[in-house]
From TrEMBL:
The lineage of its organism: Bacteria, Pseudomonadati, Pseudomonadota, Alphaproteobacteria, Hyphomicrobiales. The gene is gluQRS. InterPro entries: aa-tRNA-synth_I_CS, Glu/Gln-tRNA-synth, Glu/Gln-tRNA-synth_Ib_cat-dom, GluQ/Sye, Rossmann-like_a/b/a_fold. GO terms for molecular function: ligase activity. This is tRNA glutamyl-Q(34) synthetase GluQRS. PANTHER family: GLUTAMATE--TRNA LIGASE, GLUTAMYL-Q TRNA(ASP) SYNTHETASE. It comes from Chelatococcus albus.
Length: 299
């Protein structure tokens, strides 16, 4: 009997902050199909660290929609909100190594600093791959004593990765393998510096998407990360975190996004048409699978 730990492991990891749309359906179906083809396992993970936006009704709808599509997954399902203590331990290890620092600035503070710099330099401020201005380093120079005083006073703060220190700690170029549609894997050089001093733990929880996803993938033995092309650039940062924690690096495949009628990205925040809406208008699982390019027997 083969060791299940050696099997390929795929996962679909939505956030319950809205109803699933066609893009989510495509990603879930693709993960399930690839897992089946590889003789592997298919996991469902609920990424619910955004405590202000995630709701139980959306989580229940995730299970319902995926089951309607004909998908099954292993149980129990890992819910990130139940593991905040584990993420805090990892964050504390980065603090002990002085690879993160507290940031008390608000978004308004950061944008004001960026505007001042742009006005002084007469040019645009550099931005990260997601289009956000790189952090201008407002808290980087705070003394340890001043930072501790403000933390002890209960001042809200996030934790930012000290990118220069993190890269120095790794001390070598970082690469990962990208899985191509024809099954071959090619090496990719990761460039995490383009993210700057990114938030690694939010003000409201001791983690972030980046920290949680890296730790969870390693803990769950995920061997293949299959997700949308909009997350490809984040792999550079994830590869750095894997190196800092001495974690294995999965194979990565970033699939094309499902777009709306105007060529835009589907989004919960934009209230893109949901699977719930489609079902309410009489859509069938078979019709939806065919629409997304899958045979109805994908499960």
């Amino acid at each position: 009997m083969s060791d299940v730990r050696q099997q390929p492991v795929f996962r679909f990891a939505p956030s319950p902050n809205g109803f699933l749309h066609l893009g989510h359906a495509y990603s879930a179906l693709l993960n399930a199909r690839m897992a089946h083809a590889a003789g592997g396992r298919f996991l469902l993970r609920i990424e619910d660290i955004d405590l202000g936006r995630c709701r139980q009704e959306y989580e229940a709808a995730i299970y319902d929609d995926l089951a309607w599509l004909g998908l099954g997954w292993e149980k129990p399902v890992r819910r990130q909100s139940a593991h905040l203590g584990e993420y805090r331990v990892a964050l504390d290890s980065l603090r002990e190594r002085r690879l993160v620092y507290p940031c008390f600035a608000t978004r308004r503070d950061i944008m004001a600093a960026v505007a001042r710099s742009e006005g002084k330099n007469g040019g645009p401020w550099p931005r990260d791959p997601a289009g956000a201005p790189l952090y201008p380093g407002l808290a980087r120079a705070l003394s340890a004593a001043e930072a501790e005083r403000r933390i002890a006073a209960g001042e809200p703060h996030a934790w930012r990765l000290d990118m220069a220190a993190a890269l120095a700690a790794v001390g070598q170029p970082l690469t990962y393998r990208r899985l191509l549609p024809d099954g071959r894997a090619e090496p990719v050089v990761a460039v995490p510096a383009r993210w700057g001093d990114v938030v690694i733990a939010r003000k409201d929880v001791p983690t972030s998407y980046h920290l949680s996803v890296v730790l969870d993938d390693a803990l769950q033995g995920v061997t293949h990360v299959v997700r949308g092309a909009d997350l490809e650039a984040a792999t550079d940062l994830h590869r750095l975190l894997q190196a800092l924690f001495d974690l294995p690096t999965p194979l990565y495949h970033h699939h094309p996004l499902v777009l709306d009628g105007e060529g835009g990205k589907l989004s919960k925040s934009l209230q893109s048409e949901s699977l719930r809406d489609l079902r309410g208008r009489g859509a069938t699982p078979g019709a939806l699978l065919r629409r997304l390019g899958f045979a109805p027997d994908v499960s």
